[in-house]
Amino acid sequence: MLNSTNDLKLYYSIGEVSQMCGITETTLRYWEREIPQLKPKKAGRNIRQYSKEDLEMVKLIQHLLKERGMTIEGVRKRLSKNKEAASKDAEVVERLRGIRQKLVQMRDALDAFTYQQVDELKDNIASISEPTP
To answer: Where residue 11 sits, what CATH number does that domain have?
Structure first.
C-alpha cells in the first residue's frame, strides 16, 4: 500500500519498489527480463523509473507467483492472454485481506471484554429498554 508522500510521485526507483513490495532489486530485474509486460522507463545511465502502472504490475506478478503458485512462464502467458482478469483477481484478494484484518481487529476488541463488563452492558441495555412508569 502506498503512503501519502509516495502518492504524489510520478516515478519510483527500483529500491523504492523493492522496499514497498518486499522483494529484492535482483528479483525485479529478473522479472523485467522474463515478463515483457513489466517494462519500467529507463532514464539516463539506465536508471529504472517505475510508474504507478509498473508498480501495480509488480504487485500483480507477485500475487500470481506467490499466492497463486504460478511459474514465470505461467505468469507470462496469463498476462499476455488476460491481464484484466488477473488484475481483478489480485484486487479481490487484497480487498478480502482488508476485510479479514478488520474482522480480526473486531474479534480482538470483543475478546478484551470481560464477562463482568458484558453482564453490565446487558443490564444497561435492559434498563434502557424497560418502559418507565
So the answer is: 1.10.1660.10
